[in-house]
Amino acid sequence: MEETAQRLVDFARTMALSFSFNLVMLDDFADLKEDTLAVEPGETVAVLSEYLLTTLVAHSDKLDRVMKTIATLNPCVMVVTEVESNHNSPVLINRFVESLFYASAYFDCLEACMDRDSPHRRFVELTVFGEGSRIIVAAEGEERAFRSVKMEVWRAYFRRFGMEEADLSLSCLYQAELVTKKFTCWRHCTIGVDGKSLIVGWKGTPIHSVTAWKFNCE
User: Which residue ranges are recorded for the region named SAW (predicted)?
Assistant: First the structure.
């Protein structure tokens, strides 16, 4: 965390931004409260959420609490990155098929982009997809903790909090394409747009979504 903090501070310095890094540790993210974040009066707030909200889909009350807390911060923008797949169906066969297509695309991506003896690849295959797929397909009730949903579900949910989806600039899309082209397997990576959201896929199968949401700043 200290290394991450220093990189952020150094990057902010190159842009002449006043920046400080304050680490907040929570046993349960649903316990997040406005006063734990030490936001100074007059500060501009932006929120980055990467694969967090999916972990709360199974607990709608906790998800609502987190979103209400974020709303009280009155952020000018919230950037959300999530899994672009529906693993929340109550029907087993639907979850199985969706998980099969998603995992197949991801494993194909790993095979093309990472060495087979890579420890990072082993972690993703065994921990993320091995245990994750078991929970998605075989678990029920409280044990089924991973319940990703697609962008149209998040759109409907965010509108409940008065959030509006913001346009991604052409420079954002161009930058995304530049990043993919740094890798030898970039030709199989697909960058597309669904409405105002960026969809990252592998050989046409959606993998991740990136969206920006606006709150009303006063």
Answer: 138-214
pTM of this structure: 0.86
Contact 57, 88 (CB under 8 A): yes
Spatial contact of 173 and 201, defined as CB atoms under 8 Å apart: no
Tokens of 60: 């709608």
> Does 186 fall in a domain?
yes
The tens digit of pLDDT for each residue in 186-214 reads 899 999 999 999 999 999 999 999 999 99
Confidence of residue 146 (pLDDT cuts 50, 70, 90): confident
Interior CA angle at 139 toward 208 and 120, to 5°?
45
Is 36 a domain residue?
A: no
The answer to whether position 22 is within a domain reads no
Calpha distance 86→18 (Å, rounded) = 40
User: How far lies 100's CA from each of 86, 173, 182, 205, in Å?
Assistant: 11, 29, 28, 12
Give me 210's structure tokens: 């990136």
Total structural domains within the chain: 1
DSSP 168: P
Residue 66 and residue 129 in contact, taking contact as beta carbons nearer than 8 Å:
no
What range does the domain containing 174 cover? 48-214
Gap between the Cα atoms of 13 and 164, Å rounded: 31
In the chain the beta strands, taken as DSSP E runs, fall at 46-50, 77-83, 164-166, 189-194, 197-202, 205-214
Rounded to whole angstroms, what are the CA distances from 154 to 84, 95, 158, 181?
10, 18, 6, 29
